[in-house]
Task: structure prediction
Amino acid sequence: MERYRKAFRKKVIPQYYSGKFHVVFFSMIQLSVILIIGTKCEWKIDSLLMVLLALGYASTFTYFLHRFLLHRKLPGFGWAFKMHHWHHTFYQSHSMEYDHLDDVYMLLMPPWIQIFYFVIYLPGLVFMAEIFLPQNLILPFAFGLTLWYGIYELVHWIEHLPATHWSMKLPFMNSARQGHAIHHSKLKDVANFGIVEPSWDYIFKTKF
Result:
């Protein structure tokens, strides 16, 4: 596996790539957007309910995107299938951990997708939400979507840490890692598509 990963890094990871920059770049954007939106929200009970609704929407979107786009070769989205295939070949059930920080190239969403999320996807959803939601609930909706993205990247990161890492003592994380390891096994196309939480896996009987 070590020899394979060395060859894979040389072939796939661009020479200019920096895992440290990638992590810092995303963290700064994520925290900045959370703080900006959070301080502008008018926090009431209905605002908190809207955050929960946004989290539910994002969890649903994540499950279906993962199951039906990233694990199938759909016209026009071959690049997404390919990038996700890289993730599964580099991280397998018997070798879930990354060796070097630059290995997050096959773990975190690429920087250009992160930019797309905050510059196009999030504003686009907020624009459409303005048609259906009261004005005071728009920002809580955006806050929930942003919060989910950060949670997703963080939980997925932790799921690829060693099984002996202190974070596995946190509630839910050890079982989440075990479930994600099953997804990285031969069952990758049929099992455990809910990276953060397994609600839709239970509903559609893809929970193993």
